[in-house]
Specification:
The chain is mostly helical. It has 2 helices and 2 strands; from the N terminus they run H-E-E-H.
Amino acid sequence: MKLRRINLAVLSVLLSAIAALSGFMIYTQLSDRQKEKEEFDTLAEMVEVTPEKPNDETAVPTDDTSELMRDLSGLLAQNSECIGWLCIPDT
């Protein structure tokens, strides 16, 4: 009977430690995601959207939406290795 109580106490301590560790890991993951989102929002603010001007005045757009050019000068000033900006609508 006494051995069973000791086993239950050890099991309770182990499960409590696992629960605390899991909670800490979840917190760090959520904190990292929030930091990444804030960094992305900061970078997105540096990029300015300007409508693309057609090279040829006789060219007619094939659809109603014109392509947009992005001014990456702010990103290039921060990181000279920046080669572009990928934007996927509705994501």
